[in-house]
Design a protein that fits this description.
about 375 residues; 2 domains; 4 helices
Length: about 375
């Protein structure tokens, strides 16, 4: 697909295509289209995020802080309770991550893969104060005072694959003992990744899964089973329509309901669809199953779908350090209905087996915090000689 075709598809339908749409939905679609054009014209690296560090003091009442290079440390929460143990065996897809990294990032939990033992993951979790995540396991989580979908579960959420380390009070490594000793500090190192600007999915059997980078499109996978319905997925109550609820090595969980209601669907890799817990995905409409393109390796645990990029992002009212970061670090999901123009994800709550059957295309925008083409724009032009 050529760039000019992509631009045409964004604009197709003209202003009349959006008549009757609420103003904030029109604004969202126009903003997404503008971002797309900027990105496609930029021709620069796909790394449009910035590094930062999340620190969690392993003390009751300990600080939870974030730090960016050259900026003051920001305390954004407190520790309410420490874990007494870890969970083994943890959820199936945890074993597909890398040890001592974030293996799931969601509005209602962060799961850390401590180790893989006998083919199964051992995890420790970080949870918001007002809810529980079934995958965390009893007594195997740091409980915080933060709200679900906010802080490190929202605007400061780390992507899957972020490195995790534990330090003593003097800054030396405390090793990999889990759970860490009281008085140590757990750190999550969020580093920029080479992610696409957006992902396009043709919602049909054999449909293309295409990742759009600065250097052009890359066929990443194929749709094995398309999506057609919505279901009652835990945690969607804390996210907004057309946003990422969770990402881990075996799922992209997309919310279709407004915050406060429950509804969504999931995209899973082919190998996960064959796992015991997911066999029902072959019969139900709430799961899209995707496989490798052209006989490649399975997609589980690999980027850009199941590691390294997608995350919940800022909730309404949350702000980061500037306008680009606040809005850019908010992955957005657009759709085409019956091949029409790109529009915001329609809102559906609860289980509705046929609610999404008219969706022919999905587009998932990846988070960014750097202003596209922004580097060097404040520098004076070179002097002609």
């Amino acid at each position: 697909m050529r760039t000019d075709q992509t631009r045409s598809s964004v604009r197709s339908g003209g202003p009349s295509a959006y008549r009757g749409q609420p103003a904030h939905l029109l604004h969202t679609v126009v903003l997404a289209a503008a971002i797309l054009l900027i990105f496609v014209q930029a021709g620069e690296s796909s790394v449009l995020d910035e590094p930062y560090v999340i620190s969690v003091e392993f003390l009751p009442g300990g600080d939870i802080a974030v730090e960016r290079a050259g900026e003051p440390v920001m305390i954004i929460g407190k520790v309410k309770a420490l874990p007494e143990n870890t969970r083994w065996p943890s959820f199936t897809a945890s074993a597909w991550g890398k040890e001592m990294t974030v293996v799931a990032s969601a509005v209602n939990a962060i799961h850390i893969l401590v180790s893989v033992e006998n083919g199964k993951g051992r995890t420790m979790s970080i949870l918001p104060g007002e809810t529980v995540a079934p995958a965390a396991g009893p007594g195997a989580a740091v409980v915080t005072d933060m709200m679900a979908g906010r802080g490190i579960f929202g605007s400061w959420a780390p992507p899957v694959g972020s490195r995790v380390m534990v330090e003593n009070s003097n800054g030396t490594s405390a090793g990999r003992e889990a759970p860490p000793q009281e008085g140590t500090t757990l750190k999550i190192i969020v580093e920029p990744s080479d992610n696409p600007y957006f992902l396009e999915i043709e919602n049909r059997p054999g449909g293309r899964v295409t990742a759009w980078y600065s250097y052009g499109p890359v066929l990443t996978g194929r749709v094995i089973r398309p999506i057609a319905g919505t279901g009652r997925f835990d945690g969607t109550i804390f996210q907004d329509t057309g946003r990422i609820r969770a990402n881990h090595p075996g799922v992209i969980d997309i919310c279709t309901s407004p915050e406060g209601l429950v509804g969504g669907f999931q995209i899973i890799p082919l190998e996960h669809a064959f796992s015991k817990e997911m066999l029902g995905s072959w019969k139900m409409t709430q799961w899209m199953i995707v496989g490798p393109a052209g006989g490649g390796t399975d997609l589980k645990g690999s980027g850009p779908l199941f590691s390294g990029g997608l995350l919940p992002g800022p909730a309404r009212g949350e702000k980061l350090w500037d306008l680009w970061a606040t809005y850019g670090r908010k992955p957005l999901v657009l759709v085409r209905m019956n091949g029409g123009p790109w529009v915001r994800m329609p809102s559906f709550s609860g289980r509705q087996d046929h609610a999404l059957e008219n969706i022919t295309h999905l587009r998932i925008y990846y988070p960014f915090t750097r202003e596209p083409q922004g580097d060097g724009l404040d520098q004076p032009p070179p002097v002609s000689r």
